[in-house]
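About this split. The held-out portion is used to measure sequence recovery: a designer receives only the C-alpha cells and must propose an amino acid at every position. Recovery is the fraction of positions where the proposal matches the reference. Here is one held-out target exactly as it appears in the evaluation file.
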C-alpha cells in the first residue's frame, strides 16, 4: 500500500468517527453565536450565525471524506437522478437568489448550510454500509436523550446536566414549553439535551424506526435494541410533540406495510413485535399523563389558553409566510431570511417571527415557489422510485422509508426539518440513509 493510499484510508476512518459522533450529538442544543445581530424581535437562532455542535462534526466529516476521496480518486455515487435533481435545484436556488434576498449576507450562510447538508446526504449514500454500521451511535443517541427526557418528565425540571447544554427548565417560567391541563396545571414538556421538545420528538420518532431496521443476528443485541426502542417510545411521549407522534405512527405503518406486502416474513414479524413493544410502552406511560394527553391532542372538553395560543400562532405564521411568498414569488426572501421578511411585512405581528410550521411553505418563502415545489419533489421522489422499480423490501429499506414517512409528516406540522442545525441535519441524514438503503436493495440477492 502506497503512502497516498494509506493516508486516504486513515482520513476515511477519521471521517467515519466524526460521523458517528455526529449521530450521537444530533439533538444537542450546544452552540455558539458567532456573528450576533442587534437584539430584535427575530430570535437569535434565526438571524445570527449560530454554529451547533452537529454543524462542526458535519463539517469535519465532509472535509476528511473529501480529502480521502481526492487522494484515492474513487468515484462518488451521486444517487438516483429522480432524487438528486430536486437537491440540485434547491442548492442552485439558494445561491442564485442571494442578490435578490432581503439580507444577502445571511442568505450566503443559508446557502452554505444547504450545500453542506446535501453533501452530508451524499456522504451517507457513499460511505455508510447499512443501518447496522450506525446502530451503536444511533442507540447511544436515543438512549442518552431518552434517559434525560424521562428524568425531566419525572422531576418536572432539569436533571443537572448544564455542561452538556441542558436548559434550566422551569414550567412556571414563561417561555418554557409546557402542556396546560384543564385545571391549569403546567406540565413540563421534556427537552432532553435539545433545543425544543418538538425537535427532540422528531429525532426520537425517526431514530426509533431507523434502529428497528438495524438487523443483527445476536440475541443480546436484539434485546438491547428493543430496550432502547422502549425508552425512546417513553421519551417520545414525554416530549408531547403532536407532529412527531403522527410521524412515528406513519413510520411504523409504512415499515410494516412494506415488509408484509413484500413477503419478508421474518423481518415483518420482528418489526411487528418491536412496534408493538413501542406502542405498549407509550400506552402504559401515557395512562398517568392522560390529562396532559387529552389537553395536547385537543380531546379535552375545554381547550386551554396555552394550547389555543399555540394553534393560533401557527396559523398566523402560515398566513404571514404566505404573504411573503405572494410578495416574492420568484426569488423568495433568500435562504434563512424568511423570519426577517416576515418582520418587515408586519412589524407588529403579535407572535414570534418563526418560519411557518409547514416546511414546503417555509422553503417557498425563502427560495420562491420553485423552491417549494423542489422540496415537495424531494420528499415525493423516493416513493416514486419505490413504485416504479419495486425493489426487494429489505429491513433497512423499510426502516429508512419509515423514517422518511415520519419526516414527511413532521414537515407538515413543524419547521425544524428545514430550520436549525439539529433538525436540518436530521432531514439530510434521513434522505441520505434512504438513498443508501435503496442502492443496497437493488444490489441485494434475489434481484
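Reference sequence for scoring:
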Amino acid at each position: 500500500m502506497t503512502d497516498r493510499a494509506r493516508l486516504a484510508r486513515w482520513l476515511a476512518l477519521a471521517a467515519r468517527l466524526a460521523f458517528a459522533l455526529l449521530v450521537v450529538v444530533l439533538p444537542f442544543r450546544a452552540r455558539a453565536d458567532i456573528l450576533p445581530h442587534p437584539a430584535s424581535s427575530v430570535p437569535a437562532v434565526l438571524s445570527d450565525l449560530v454554529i451547533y455542535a452537529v454543524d462542526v462534526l458535519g463539517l469535519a466529516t465532509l472535509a476528511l471524506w473529501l480529502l480521502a476521496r481526492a487522494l484515492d480518486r474513487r468515484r462518488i455515487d451521486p444517487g438516483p437522478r429522480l432524487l438528486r435533481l430536486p437537491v440540485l435545484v434547491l442548492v442552485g436556488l439558494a445561491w442564485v437568489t442571494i442578490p435578490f434576498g432581503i439580507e444577502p449576507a445571511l442568505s450566503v450562510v443559508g446557502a452554505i448550510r444547504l450545500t453542506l447538508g446535501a453533501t452530508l446526504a451524499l456522504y451517507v449514500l457513499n460511505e455508510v454500509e447499512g443501518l447496522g454500521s450506525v446502530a451503536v451511535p444511533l442507540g447511544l443517541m436515543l438512549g442518552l436523550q431518552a434517559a434525560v427526557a424521562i428524568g425531566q418528565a419525572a422531576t418536572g425540571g432539569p436533571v443537572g446536566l448544564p455542561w452538556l447544554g441542558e436548559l434550566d427548565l422551569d414550567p412556571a417560567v414563561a417561555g418554557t414549553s409546557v402542556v396546560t391541563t384543564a385545571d391549569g396545571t403546567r406540565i413540563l414538556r421534556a427537552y432532553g439535551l435539545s433545543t425544543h421538545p418538538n425537535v427532540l420528538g422528531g429525532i426520537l420518532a425517526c431514530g426509533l424506526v431507523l434502529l428497528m431496521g438495524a438487523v443483527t443476528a445476536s440475541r443480546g443485541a436484539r434485546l438491547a435494541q428493543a430496550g432502547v426502542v422502549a425508552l425512546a417510545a417513553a421519551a417520545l411521549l414525554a416530549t408531547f410533540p403532536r407532529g412527531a407522534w403522527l410521524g412515528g405512527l406513519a413510520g411504523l405503518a409504512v415499515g410494516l406495510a412494506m415488509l408484509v406486502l413484500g413477503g419478508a416474513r421474518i423481518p415483518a414479524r420482528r418489526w411487528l413485535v418491536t412496534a408493538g413493544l413501542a406502542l405498549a410502552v407509550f400506552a402504559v406511560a401515557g395512562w398517568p399523563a392522560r390529562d396532559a394527553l387529552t389537553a395536547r391532542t385537543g380531546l379535552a372538553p375545554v381547550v386551554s389558553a396555552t394550547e389555543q395560543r399555540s394553534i393560533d400562532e401557527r396559523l398566523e405564521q402560515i398566513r404571514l409566510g404566505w404573504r411573503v411568498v405572494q410578495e416574492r414569488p420568484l426569488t423568495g426572501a433568500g435562504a434563512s431570511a424568511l423570519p426577517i421578511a416576515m418582520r418587515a411585512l408586519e412589524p407588529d405581528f403579535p407572535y414570534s417571527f418563526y418560519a411557518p410550521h409547514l416546511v414546503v411553505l417555509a422553503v417557498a418563502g425563502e427560495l420562491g415557489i420553485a423552491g417549494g415545489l423542489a422540496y415537495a419533489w424531494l420528499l415525493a421522489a423516493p416513493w416514486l422510485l419505490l413504485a416504479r422499480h419495486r425493489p426487494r423490501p429489505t429491513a433497512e429499506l423499510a426502516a429508512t422509508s419509515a423514517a422518511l414517512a415520519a419526516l414527511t409528516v413532521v414537515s407538515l406540522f413543524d419547521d425544524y426539518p428545514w430550520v436549525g442545525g439539529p433538525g436540518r441535519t436530521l432531514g439530510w441524514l434521513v434522505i441520505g440513509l434512504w438513498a443508501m438503503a435503496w442502492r443496497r436493495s437493488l444490489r441485494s440477492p434475489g434481484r
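Annotator remark: DSSP finds 16 helices and four strands in the chain.
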